[in-house]
Fold this sequence. Notes:
Structural class: alpha+beta
Number of helices: 10
Amino acid sequence: MKYILLFILLFSFFTAFGQESAKKGINYKPINLEEAVNQLKNIHHDTTKQKIFKMTESEFLAGSHMGLGMWMRNNWGLWKGKELAKYFNSIGIFHPDDMSGIILTSYYRELHEQNWKVEEQVQHYQDFWKKSNEHLIRLETHPFYKKMMEEKLDSIEKARLDQKKSDWTSGKKISGYVEQRCGFLLKGMFLRTQIEGTIIGWQSDKLVLHIDNFVDKKKKKRVMKCYDVKDDIILIEDHELFSLIEK
């Protein structure tokens, strides 16, 4: 629930940002890490900074990757190779997700008056991609390794699902996002809409949910059609986009 609140909080400034950017002159696109951190300091009000300050670093990063992080990747040209992306390329970072991760980490540490440790952050992502490439090569060339990893992943996923089933029991309230359009191969945040509901039970690895509320009423017909909803009962396959509503 904490991550959902942070997600809403970080997204809430986007509307105001679009309306006020011309007045405040904060629509400047940064060209390096220091400017990016300063931009976030300018964008966020003190109340938002205080909320971030109370979080752990991992909580902040987990909650902001798809909100504030996505906004930076789209608006600061990280996907399009603009000036800020070129800066990161010059220090050995090439994926937009890694770029936004370094910005968010540095911003968090700046608010806490900590050393950003940029070189350490860069090394972390470089090590990740090195291990990832080695892993892919082994998957392609070593059948035994591939089988072992598949069994390990299956075991982890089963354990996670079993734990969720024990926690997400009948009668509990949840909130999350479902696709609002049918037949789209490309899925994304802006093709989703939020619903709230009551858990009925589980059908294998799918969640059976009674829809209590459409946050955006205009999207109701689309969702009803896409998921073949009858009597407000919906079968949720992608329940990773949901979380329990804490009372």
